[in-house]
Every structure is written in structure tokens, then in C-alpha cells.
Specification:
heterodimer, A: 172 residues, alpha+beta, eight-stranded mixed beta sheet, B: 120 residues, mainly alpha, 70% helix, flat
Chain lengths: 172, 120
């Protein structure tokens, strides 16, 4: 009787361990960020790039309007490839593009905008990279589509033609 | 009187040092428990990536603003999810992780005791 209980318990433990390890090994250990959306925009205060004026998030993002917050930097190579697409998106009057200049030198950022054009209505100057963390960003470039103070879509990595087309459809 | 003044100066210097050390210890503790966003397998404390450095600055800022350790973890959890913490809290997704070792230990212990009694 005792032997039977022992065998059943040992088998049960092995089965539990097997299931746990099997499940864990099925999951990839390389983390892929969840594109969490439908979250309210964070409350923050930041400095503006040109005027150096301190501004609150509520002053920057008004209700009943579409915004695209784009995190960029002059040292970020993929930002260069997506920049012409942002310039093209400025033709659409339904959306305003807000830039978040991440850990950049002001001179380099200005040169970048002089060379490729400025698609941004306003630019937040995030010298220490704190604002990007407050937005829950993972890297540069990253874009957030915002409406009524809610992030409706998050784009990790550079935008491409398909994604810009998707943005156009979403704001229609 | 001079000795009294000197005593007060030394006392103040030491108490400020102590405060600074406390904040630094807390900062190290928190950043060691935060996972680096872009470098897999490293904590924010160990990493020197741009985002890890930004997180260190933010932890420092939050501590100076009077945030508690738990409030700082909650802040990062809200932005990045439970994944950001190395030491996960007990909830419906992590209960197996916490309870399985205890369960195995108890069952194993019961088997050992039972066998011991049988041999006796």
C-alpha cells in the first residue's frame, strides 16, 4: 500500500515538473514587448526644443484631435529612413506630429531637421531620456498614435509605408 | 563651547552622509531588480545602455521626490508590465513559480519521514 502511494506521488511530481519545464521551454526567452495600447497618455512636464519653455502634457495634447508622438534622435539611423514618411504625413491636416528628441545634442538635432525637414508641430527636448521612459518606450524610433488623450496604437521601430497608410486609415 | 560646536558639525556631516548612503543603497537595490529593456539578461544597474542610464536617472528622481520602493516598482510595472521586475510578485501568473518549490519540498519531506518511520 505504502509502495503504491510512493509510486503515485513520485510519478505525479515528475509529471508536474515535466509539464512546468515543457511549458517554460515552449516560451521564447527573448522578450518581445507587448504593444499595449488604449492607455491614457502619461502626465508629464517637459522642456520644448526651441523655446526651452516648460510645458505640461495636457497643454501639448488637446482632446478631439489626432496626434502622432514620434521619438527620434539625430544619432538614430532608422530615424533617417522614416523621416520622409513623417514629412509626407504632415500633408494630412487631421493629425499633428509631436517630436520627442531623445538624448541628443541640440546642434546635431537642428542639423538633422535642417537637412531633412521638420515635420513636428512641437518638439519635446528629452535630454536625459526620462520622458521616453514615462511613455513606456523601448527604443528609438518609436511612435504613438493618440486620440482624445488615449494611445490608440503604438509603433515600435521605424515607420514604413504600410504603417503610415494604416495611420491614415485610422484617422480617416 | 568650541567642542560643542565641533560636535554639532561632525554630527550633521555624519547624519547627511547617512541619508545620502541610504538613498544610494535604495537606488542600487531598485536598479538591480529592474530588467534592462534592450540588453537581455542584464539588470539596469549592470547595463550601460542609453535606456538603462535613463532609468537610473528616473529612479534617482523618483527617490528624491519621495517615492517609496514599491511605488517606483509600480510605476515601472504600469509602463512595461510585470516583466520589468526580476523579483516577480505573487499573483495568478506567478503562483506556480512561488508555490511549486514549497510543494515539492513538503511532498519530498513527507516521503522521507514516511520511509524513515517504516524502517524503524
Amino acid at each position: 500500500m505504502n509502495n503504491k502511494i510512493l509510486k503515485i506521488t513520485t510519478t505525479a511530481i515528475f509529471i508536474i515538473i515535466f509539464v512546468v519545464f515543457y511549458k517554460a521551454l515552449q516560451d521564447t526567452n527573448i522578450y518581445t514587448p507587448k504593444k499595449k495600447s488604449n492607455n491614457e497618455i502619461p502626465l508629464f512636464s517637459a522642456n520644448l526644443f526651441y523655446s526651452n519653455k516648460q510645458i505640461n502634457s495636457s497643454e501639448l495634447f488637446k482632446l478631439d484631435k489626432f496626434y502622432l508622438l514620434n521619438i527620434w534622435s539625430s544619432w538614430c539611423v532608422p530615424c533617417r529612413t522614416e523621416h520622409p514618411l513623417l514629412m509626407d504625413l504632415t500633408k494630412n491636416k487631421k493629425i499633428e506630429i509631436i517630436g520627442l528628441n531623445y538624448k541628443d545634442k541640440k546642434n546635431n538635432a537642428e542639423n538633422f531637421l535642417n537637412e531633412l525637414g521638420n515635420p513636428y508641430q512641437e518638439i519635446i527636448f528629452d535630454k536625459e531620456g526620462i520622458n521616453a521612459i514615462e511613455w513606456g518606450a523601448f527604443g528609438v524610433p518609436e511612435s504613438f498614435l493618440i486620440n482624445n488623450g488615449i494611445v490608440i496604437k503604438k509603433y515600435i521601430g521605424p515607420l514604413n509605408k504600410e504603417l503610415v497608410e494604416e495611420i491614415r486609415l485610422l484617422i480617416k | 563651547m568650541k567642542i560643542l560646536k565641533l560636535f554639532f558639525i561632525i554630527f550633521f556631516i555624519f547624519s547627511f552622509n547617512h541619508l545620502g548612503a541610504n538613498t544610494d543603497d535604495m537606488k542600487i537595490k531598485i536598479t538591480k531588480n529592474l530588467r534592462c529593456l534592450i540588453c537581455q539578461g542584464q539588470s539596469v544597474y549592470d547595463s550601460d545602455s542609453e535606456f538603462a542610464n535613463s532609468m537610473k536617472v528616473l529612479v534617482d528622481k523618483k527617490l528624491n521626490e519621495g517615492f517609496s520602493e514599491k511605488q517606483i516598482y509600480d510605476f515601472f510595472k504600469e509602463k512595461y508590465g510585470e516583466w520589468i521586475l526580476y523579483d516577480p510578485e505573487l499573483n495568478k501568473n506567478t503562483y506556480i513559480l512561488w508555490l511549486l518549490p514549497i510543494l515539492i519540498f513538503l511532498i519530498g519531506g513527507a516521503i522521507v519521514i514516511k520511509n524513515f518511520k517504516i524502517r524503524k
